[in-house]
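ARCHIVE CARD
Drawer: 12
Card no.: 0347
Subject: one protein chain, sequence and derived structure
Cross-reference: see card 0346
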Amino acid sequence: MVSVAQSPISFRWQSTWPAKDIFHEYAQDFAKKVNSMSGGRLKIEVLPSGAVVKAFDLIDAVSKGTLDGGHGVLAYWYSKNSAMALWGSGPAFGMDPNMVLAWHEYGGGRVLLDEIYKSLNLDVQSFVYGPMPTQPLGWFKTPVTKVEDFKGLKFRAVGLSIDMFSALGAAVNALPSGEIVAAMDRGLLDAAEFNNASSDKTLGFPDVSKVCMLQSFHQSAEQFEIIFNKTKYNALSADLKSVIAVAVQAASADMSWKAIDRYSQDYVALQKSGVKFYKTPDSILQAQLKAWDEITKKKSAENPLFKRVLESMEKFAMRACRWQNDTNVDYKMAFRYATSKNT
């Protein structure tokens, strides 16, 4: 029996999100689970983005031990190895975000990611979790109706989405979440994407735009990432490592449920506040797929690890997507039937 009287191990974390963002809340939710499940023997304190380092500098701060851990997305480390953006950017061969997590856990993704971190000499222990719903195309001054509308557009995106929107003609700037709305307000950006109704509402997108385009392949299957300084993680007892592993799975499920509840509420609230939502035209979605195909061919030729990750994802997707697409019923049919009864 382990005594709870021993001094607790304290880990100082930082997220890559502002304190008011629901994403920071997800980081806190994970920490609370670990703190509770460990009986107080491990205490994780989560600071917001910028408290110690800038959002995009988190991975280096954790690797060096400046921070004990953190919460972000793999696309933020894109500049270190383009392969990491594949855990989120692009259409993922038709996989939804939960299927990408299945590939990560059971199809070889975890082993490949560990290899990437080792090749970069980053002393981090990674846990990929939290399937994100498809992200909107973004917020615009007026609805975009054709690919040509992106020509010269000053646009915000991150990861390999930068390459995709650049291929469509946009001038892309990879700003962290806390800087996007201010840049739009000052005219430094014409349009921008971030993630979801709740985050976009809290960050203030409706203050600078009343047009949001829904559906996009630029980040249709993204996940969050929890990282620990590997040396400090390895020093933990086996049972605390188990607590962390189980907390990751619990937080992943909890995050996906909370997202459905909160995003749907804020989606309605945004509409009531005057925001107009439009479906992204199929012509733009098709252009994204074509651009992605060219981008991945180029990156595969440049980066052997990128090629291996892409091929691993494709192999898993060809089996998993065939099964899911053949198995799942058309949920829209049931929803249309339910709404028709109430009109």
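Annotation on reverse: The radius of gyration is 20 Å. The chain has a mean pLDDT of 95.
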